[in-house]
Each structure stands twice: as structure tokens, then as C-alpha cells.
């Protein structure tokens, strides 16, 4: 067996199941799962129709590079979304089976395997999406964290020692962030690009929540920021997905874009890895990237939930509207996020995720401790009812 498998930690949801084992919610109360970020809005008809129509094409092997029309649809969407950003669909776009598998696989391409001497370092935010850590460890790297603290909940890169930066090969960023929904602004990108120029690492920009925002405040993307700052996309790869944007997590479809040299190597890896997207899924994905009406409606539904849920929660908790995403990063009374989670489950059958499970202990503490992540993915009525129950428990 690969000994690096022993370095992996249990996934947050496995830790949650263990933490709640033996704790029973009130009898007769329907559980409300707000702990997992799985979109529940209906899949758009424009996507399901395209998928159904293309089913006869299951008889064909797909190419790892994807259909030209899908790559063009991705490039066209990026140009519309990011202020005229120009990407070559032949060399700077690559369809992937959702951002999760692509983030993991990309690290395997970028990291050098070292038999002697220090391992290549990978830096990521803390709290973070656990795939970053797993990708780094199984790629033979060493993970280092930059804690995210209030009020902005963005990575404090100054916490990374210079000796670590000098051997850093890859930096994961997530904007809008998971779990806080915080968005990197142009100045934040400029700070990261300055570090990249000094130390020469690759940036993997996870932007899967980019289309869930409020009031027209569209989050800036990594490639867009580079363009606005007069930089090329060298050393930068953006990861995005249809799962959240289009409510099709089961489609397993997204794309990566950016540095043509990195994507050439990534395509070679994926050709051997067998990561080609089926042609019906490519047809459905093309339809999805070409249609914006369903995305506008999706945002409206999330906006409605936040508009109704936040005023209720604010009667009992210190909580605010995130910059983007469908998460609430709630500061718990008393500071014990695990005890808070257990109480909610036992007394109200509401399931949330303790922030400490999304972060790691560091010399600067665990920045997830004292918070819980709430995913507003259920229907409006369910989210409102859960918020009322939570507020009633903690207004006492």
C-alpha cells in the first residue's frame, strides 16, 4: 500500500458522524442537514435536455482534451464573466470532471517527487477545502497553512516562514472562500502575485463559488486580476465548476484555464489517468456555459434565503452576509463550536459543521474553532424554520 495514505486525516463529515454518534435528535422531528454544501435547487432544463439528447453519443470514446465546442463555450463564458478576458480554447482551456478531482490531480502534476532532502511545500488557507491537503500529501509534498481570521477571513501569508516560501511549489487559494464566503480583492491578488514573483510558485485558484454573489458584486477571478494588474497568466490556473453555478453536482463537470504550459502537462497526465468527460456530459456542459438565465435565477433563490434567514439569526448570533457563496460562517456563543453542534443536533435536529473540522491546529491556533459552517442549500421554508429554531435556543 502507498504509505502516504497513512498521512491523510478523516474527512470533516466523517469526523462529524463520529462526534454525533450516540446523540439522538428529538423524536418525531425531521432532521435538517445544513452541514454539507450540496446544492438542492432543481437542475436546469437547458442542461437536462441537452444531456438527454446526447445519450446516443455514449457509444463514442471521448477525448481528454474535450470537444472544441465545449472549450469554446468555456472561453466565451470567461470573456463575458471576466470583463473580456481572452483565453485560447485550444491551449488555455481544459474540461475536467468537476473542480474537486482537478484540484487533486493538478497537484500530482506540479509537485516534484523528492527522495532525499526537504519535500516541496504547498501553502493553503486555514480553514480550507480538505482536498488541498490530501493532494499535497499524496503528491509527496508538505502542507503549510496561512490562517484566516476575522474580520476578513482571508489568508495571512505573513504566517508562512521565508524558509517555507523558498521551497513552495504550489499555493491553493479559494475565492469566494470556503467556509467564510470571503472574496479576495484586487489588492489581495497583488500581494499574492508579489510573493509569486519572489518565490516562483504556481497558483491554483479555486473559484467554484464565483457565481453565487449578492447585489451585483461579482467576485474578481485570479486570471482577471492578473490581467488588470498587467500580468500574464503564467503560473496561474483557475478551477471552476458547474456544480454550484448550475445546481448539477452529479454532472461532475467543470474546466480549468490559464497557463498553457501547465495545461499541456496537465493534459498529458489526464490522458494517462483516464479523465475524459463523456460526450453527453460535454454536450450538457456546453449548454450550461452558454446559458446565463438559470444562473440568475439560482442567485435570486440564494439571495431570498439570506434575506429571510439572516435577520432571524442576528437576533441571537454575531453573523453577517458573506461576500459570496451559500455559506454562513457563524460565530458561536461561548466559543465551543463542537458543543454548539451537538446541542443543535440533540435539541433541534439541525446539523451544522464545526469550524474546527475544516481547519488544522497551528502555532497560531485553530482559526475554525469558535465557528460553525451553515450551508443554505435546502429550500427557503426549511432554512427559515431551522434559523428560527436556532435563534430560539440561543436567545434564552
From TrEMBL:
Any single biological process term in GO: lysine biosynthetic process via diaminopimelate
Gene3D superfamilies to which the protein is assigned, alphabetical: Aspartate Aminotransferase, domain 1 (3.90.1150.10), Type I PLP-dependent aspartate aminotransferase-like (Major domain) (3.40.640.10)
Cofactor(s) listed in the protein's UniProt record: pyridoxal 5'-phosphate
Keyword field contains Membrane: no
Domain Aminotransferase class I/classII large: residue ranges: 33-376
Record's keyword terms, sorted: Aminotransferase, Transferase
Keyword check for Protease: no
Gene Ontology molecular function, alphabetical: pyridoxal phosphate binding; succinyldiaminopimelate transaminase activity
Protein's recorded name: Putative 8-amino-7-oxononanoate synthase
Organism the protein comes from: Neisseria musculi
